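User: Can you predict the 3D structure for this chain?
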Amino acid sequence: MIVEVVTGADERPETRVVDVDDLGRLHLALGVVTDEEAADALERSGLGRLQDAGTAFLDVASLRAAAEPRARAADWAAQWDRMVAHARSQGWLSEDGASLQVHVESAAGA
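Assistant: Here is the predicted structure, written as structure tokens:
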């Protein structure tokens, strides 16, 4: 699954969740946007926050709510639970389980 921040309508960056059935990976992909634009778009969407150029924290409940309705895999919920459990085992899940730490990939090479 990928959370993207890309230039949207009227050149205003927007956030979208894509590849929702691929729960073997999760990262934030930035299009040609500044860190400030990315941070603002993430916060406006409720999907998370940008910590720095390489790290973001995604809201677990908001991410699931954005992805699950578009999922096609019959066992998607079980795959989701495995992804979250794996993140916990790697130390990528906050103590309260509310946010996932993810890597940021920038199309701008920043």
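The helical segments are 35-45, 60-67, 76-90. Strands lie at 2-7, 13-18, 27-30, 48-52, 55-59, 99-106.
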